[in-house]
Amino acid sequence: MTAEIRPTPRGNGVRRAPRTAAPGGPTAGASSAAARSRAARRPVAPGRLALDPAPPSIGPRILERAARVIRVLGHPLRLRLLERLETGEVNVTDLVSASGATQALVSQHLGILRAEGVVGTRRDGGRVFYRITEPKVHRILDCIRDCDMPEVRTWGSARDFLDPTGDD
Predict the structure, then answer these.
(1) What is the pLDDT of residues 20-36, one digit of tens each?
(2) Percentage of the chain with pLDDT > 70?
(3) Which residue from 83, 128, 151, 157 has the fewest beta carbons nearer than 10 Å?
(4) What is the torsional sign of CA 137, 139, 145, 151?
(5) CB 63: neighbour CB atoms within 10 A?
(6) Is the Cβ–Cβ distance between 55 and 62 less than 8 Å?
(7) What is the structure's pLDDT at 28?
(8) Would you list the domain boundaries of the chain?
């Protein structure tokens, strides 16, 4: 039987029914061959052999935390604020001038980041200083630069600029 084409439940595309055949027929083993073909085309991470087994499964608590962090980073202004915070502690006034947003909007987004534990605060008199407390943020911002700004890859990450010798 060949693939049937029928509308999807939402009506915005097509869904193909799986191909079936008698055992030993023309499509026997096609799905496993297709899977091997897809696996062969999949990019291989540096330091891994193409035939290595799949990486270990990520635990549900780690996935839930990662999803919360990624969700909270899903706004351009929050990413801009975090990019500015990569250099260290910054007060709200400096974040407002760096982002070009209003003080109220910056404070609102910083509150969202703080509620999820992505940033922390320190008070000094009447001023509040923010800093990144979630270690994944630096790697996520580096990933954005690597993927969307290939010319930056040769410059290194922001942390390399802060400490070019590698000494912390």
Answers:
(1) 545 554 444 445 555 55
(2) 58
(3) 151
(4) positive
(5) 11
(6) no
(7) 47
(8) 60-136
pLDDT tens string 37-93? 555 555 666 666 656 677 789 999 999 999 999 999 999 999 999 999 999 999 999
Intra-chain end-to-end CA distance of the chain, in Å:
64
CATH node for 60-136: 1.10.10.10
Q: Give 3-56 as a DSSP string.
A: PPEEE-TTSSSEEEPPP---TTSTTTTHHHHHHHHHHHHS---TT--TTSPPPP
Q: Report the C-alpha gap between 121 and 89 in whole angstroms.
A: 9
**How far apart, in whole angstroms, are the C-alpha atoms of residue 91 and residue 113?**
15
Backbone angles phi, psi at 25, to 5 degrees: -75, -170
DSSP 8-class letter at 159: H
Helix (H/G/I), strand (E/B), else coil: 147: helix
User: Are residues 88 and 158 in contact, defined by beta-carbon separation less than 8 angstroms?
Assistant: no
d(CA 131, CA 91): 9
Candidate from 14-18, 79-83, 150-154 with smallest mean pLDDT: 14-18
Secondary element (H or E) of residue 65: helix 60-72
Helix (H) or strand (E) holding 77: helix 76-85
